[in-house]
Amino acid sequence: MVSTLPIPKQLITDAWVSATWEEFLVASEDSEQTKAQCYYDLGLMRIEAIPTGSVHGQDNVLLATMISFYGAMKNFSFVSFINTSFRKSGERECQPDLAYYIDSEVQRPTKNNQPVDVEVWGAPTLAIEIS
User: What's the total number of domains in the chain?
Assistant: First the structure.
């Protein structure tokens, strides 16, 4: 029997490639991509494997601890995120290693498994990508 389903396009990783927003959503929500960071910016998408080694993890926690300690010492309000998606639907999406909303009247975005909607919550004040 011959399958009538379309053959899926081979995903190119670790490079920026042209894609529609809909193609990006399909690729980023693919169960095989759950251990990947997915980025979209004005017609281009990039899918990268998440570094899981000791160096990346130690650098990540060191920076997060330093920023939290500094914030506590300076007594400013912040909400922090690790490996969270931030989305402007149809236009951009990114997943920085660390992200912070810093403000005296900061509000915590809705706690769910959806990307943070920057149209509602604004872009993070600080975003850090560890490489």
Answer: 2
